[in-house]
Write a structure and sequence with these properties.
This protein is an alpha/beta fold and 229 residues long. It is built from six helices and 15 strands. It has two domains: 141 residues, Rossmann fold, CATH 3.40.50; 74 residues, ACT domain (Alpha-Beta Plaits), CATH 3.30.70.260. The two termini are 25 Å apart. It binds ribulose-5-phosphate.
Length: 229
């Protein structure tokens, strides 16, 4: 039984670690749920190669003795396990709450199989309550933000994305980019929104992960629930 949120994240992470086999190349996600997975994976002491999706995850995995490779030199990933901010219909996702969405998406897209892990509160009927992270290049970002407003308005979302700040300064991603968060409310047509956002010059990527997750392992009061698209 796992009623506490942290407990739900832990059991989901542990269930995901059980999917890994020796010899695999494994994408290592970012965030508190992914951290549970990385710890459970390290405890299994398998002969695997990890491909981290952020500097934070790289440091955690390294400290636990997981052998690491980098996407690029490593081209094929057997399985990626990562968290999410929202899990919607068909395993559509919002990711990027931890500002790692670009490296996460690159690793996911290089993976044969992607499993998302989360606590039960992440399941939603419609995506959009969690503000959608959008990664933009720093150069001219205020202008890009105005273009983003136009793109969102074309999708019937009258929202002005907000620059993500921490301790009085803009949050920088591992790639040196900035994050704008768009509090969309309800994203009725995620695919159309994804296309609209990607068409804005200056946008590097966004946190909509569509048709990428093969399975979800959700920690819930009754145990781990397995979801398929
Ligand atoms: C990082 C992410 C995370 O996976 C997402 O924010 C979920 O985090 P947590 O497991 O801490 O709730 O997308 O960019």
């Amino acid at each position: 039984m796992s009623s506490d949120v942290e407990d739900q994240k832990r059991v989901a992470g542990e269930a995901a670690a059980a999917l890994v086999e020796s010899g695999m190349t494994v994408g290592l996600g970012t965030g508190s749920t992914a951290a549970w997975f990385v710890k459970a994976l390290a405890a299994r002491k398998l002969d695997i190669l990890g491909v981290p999706t952020s500097q934070t995850t790289a440091e955690l995995a390294q400290s636990l003795g997981i052998r690491l490779g980098e996407l690029g030199p490593v081209k094929d990933i057997d399985l990626t396990i990562d968290g999410a901010d929202e899990i919607g219909p068909g395993l559509s996702l919002i990711k990027g709450g931890g500002a790692a969405l670009l490296r996460e998406k690159l690793v996911w897209e290089a993976s044969k199989r992607c499993v998302v892990i989360a606590d039960a509160a992440k399941r939603v009927a419609v995506l959009g309550k969690f503000p959608l992270p959008i990664e933009v290049v720093a150069f001219g970002h205020e202008t890009t933000a105005l273009r983003l407003c136009d793109a969102l308005a074309l999708c019937d979302l009258g929202v002005a994305p907000r620059l993500r700040m921490r301790d009085g300064a803009p949050v920088k991603t591992d790639g040196g980019n900035l994050i704008y968060d768009a509090a969309c409310g309800r994203i009725e047509e995620p695919a159309a929104l994804a296309d609209a956002l990607k068409s804005v010059t200056g946008v590097v990527d966004h946190g909509l992960f569509l048709d990428l997750a093969d399975q979800a392992l959700v920690g819930a009061p009754e145990g781990v629930i397995v979801l398929e698209p």
